[in-house]
Amino acid sequence: MFARSALLVVAALALAACAASPTGRTQLILISDSEVNRMGGQAWQQMNAELEPSRDRAKVNMVNCITEALVVQLDEPHAPEVWEVTVFADDMINAFALPGGYIGVFEGLMNVAEDQDQLAAVIGHEIAHVTARHGAERISRHQATGFAVNVLGGATGSQQTAALLGLGAQVGLLLPFGRAQETEADLLGLDYMARAGFNPAGAVKLWNNMAQASGRGGPPAFLSTHPTSDSRIRDLNNRMPRAMELYREAQARGLRPACDMPR
After folding, report:
1. Tell me, what's the pLDDT at 186?
2. Which residues are known catalytic residues?
């Protein structure tokens, strides 16, 4: 009886909070944008307190140049003035974006992303996690699950029930996203980079480089829950005709970013 009641309440919450991502995928959103942005700001402060910023001006300038070109193509409320960028002096092959307009790039990523187009594929991917509200979606799922587990635990008097269902698991904005969200971020990021004038073919080159880096000593952190390289490249190639059309339109408008580091 109690279990059924919990499931009915969660189902009602899901119906009441149903949203759609930019690709049309159904999402459960139980948290406000202002709240998730506040959480993103807290996580950003923590990251900046714990990590050393890069002193390599060429790398910092490149990342800022790419980010500015990308975000100027975004619609409200993700306008250019919202975004804050830091390059971290760390060899980790990774990058992230947080709700509220924060982007972090690790220097190690630039050992794999060899030019502006490849790095734009990663930054565009991370921006897409924010514009598609993936952080709010993940938090909402845990909120809904946590509610059901609380009811079940109270009904049975068992703490083990809650533990088995993961109520005590750490939930943070910097944990890896699910594969559906990662694929969505790939496709949206491809569109973003193309609209900004970056060659979307660079995305496929990047993931080939990522696969090679994985074979040299374990997968980069960026690939923790991502689709396999083969499936990712297949999805990107399927999207490529649309992306190339956006790229040609951007080029025709004079959008030709020049962000590469001097060699």
Report:
1. 92
2. 126
